[in-house]
Request: fold
Amino acid sequence: MLISVVGTRPEPYNPVMLSDPAILDRVINSSQGGFPPALARQVLRFGFPLKDRQRYKRLSQKAQNGTLTAKERAALEDYVNVNDLLMILKAKAEASLGDESPAA
Reply:
């Protein structure tokens, strides 16, 4: 397990945690099934609420215009990181449901 610990408590969230989502994808192995069907269906329902999609769109526009503050850049990176995680989990969920037999 690759969790860094100080004493017995894990270190706080690292904002560059998913700077290379391919590593997480290899760990989760999203192209292979393995989730129980109920979990896979629940994961496929995960998504950003409208308010977050709107905020992401505003932040993306500011990024394109070169007008992001440091705090806004961090927020945009968080959205991208969470989206990367969701895509990997959803790919695994879809693979899992693809593994179901027609009688399941």
